[in-house]
Amino acid sequence: GMTPNGEETLLGRLAARLRQLERRIDDESAALLSRLTARDEELLRSARRLYHACSVVPCLLYYLRTSESPTKFPATISFTIRKGVPRWTHHALWLAGWACMGRVFQSAGSAATRRFAAAMFATGIWTTFIFRLGGG
Question: For the whole model, what pTM was predicted?
Fold first, then answer.
């Protein structure tokens, strides 16, 4: 946007930067997809299965009373993975999913893609392993 005297507004500059970032992400995505091998695609499918399991298996284990009894219903994923077998199962599945993703990013990702993936991995470690719900 522009002010009445023709100057670009802060909101206008921000919108332009966001469009620039969107183009960069689109370019990075297209480049990554163009470099994927059949092995990378299989690793991505494995990662997807592991991440789906990460949402379901620990919850089932929680309701099978492997971490506490009585259980709470309904309960969020964060609540069900805060301790015991569900916690460690979640962490193992999540790390295995990231191991698959990491191999894809190493083989097909640019330096920027690898940095972004590392930041997302660190965020996950920080929020689910270190400062988890009910962790103190």
Answer: 0.82
